[in-house]
């Protein structure tokens, strides 16, 4: 199901045309990455998706009822703690106080907010404020999640956690769209990539990057039944499994927990 669709969308600011005849649909369960140089119109597309901007020409159709947005610049609240801020937003979104508090602490714990959930927002660094911005977007399960350079300022550990959160959100049926400059973040997260060039959309790839694991056996595992494994092949004294990059950590953990040895881990470029 298409959660948001742009049809023949153009956008002007004064005499400057930012977007020209953009056709773009984001479907449930999809992780779409928008790439392009600075000023190419990536943020404008995201703002059109969530309804913060209107097209000069063309139409935007939105089927998602619950829309969450993480802007590129997050204006944090000066007086509240991170936990209080998220609880307040959760209540606005219809969550009970208990549910909002529990969800806020869960997300901030996974993102490893420096100082913990009770840290005043005014004392947060840019990277930690970004963690709160991500958390507020995921308080209630969104049907459309849109993020503008969400990895910006995050530490290395939070990079992996954010990838996991976005993947989990898509697996729950949401459409996810994000912009990003870092090639690794795009390659390890996106299921589809589109590039903006001079205000026009160019498809880059519809095939996710794959990770190849060569494993030697321990306790019995039917790798063909593992939810993330796409292909299983026999290898010397073991097996080779193919998994979408970004989802291979769970398979590695399964292998290690069952006494398997990891021979090699390598990324394979899509054909």
UniProtKB/TrEMBL annotation:
Keyword field contains Lipid biosynthesis: no
Family matches, as PROSITE patterns: ABC_TRANSPORTER_1 (PS00211), ABC_TRANSPORTER_2 (PS50893)
Top-rank taxon: Bacteria
A GO MF term: ATP hydrolysis activity
Entries under Pfam families matching the protein: ABC_tran
UniProt domain ABC transporter: residue ranges: 4-223
Alphabetized InterPro entries for the sequence: AAA+_ATPase (IPR003593), ABC_transporter-like_ATP-bd (IPR003439), ABC_transporter-like_CS (IPR017871), ABC_Transporter_VariousFunc (IPR051782), P-loop_NTPase (IPR027417)
Keywords noted in UniProt: ATP-binding, Nucleotide-binding, Transport
Alphabetized Gene3D superfamilies for the sequence: P-loop containing nucleotide triphosphate hydrolases
PANTHER family cross-referenced by the UniProt entry: ABC TRANSPORTER ATP-BINDING PROTEIN ALBC-RELATED
Protein's name according to its UniProt entry: ABC-type multidrug transport system ATPase subunit
Naturally occurring in which organism (per UniProt): Kribbella solani
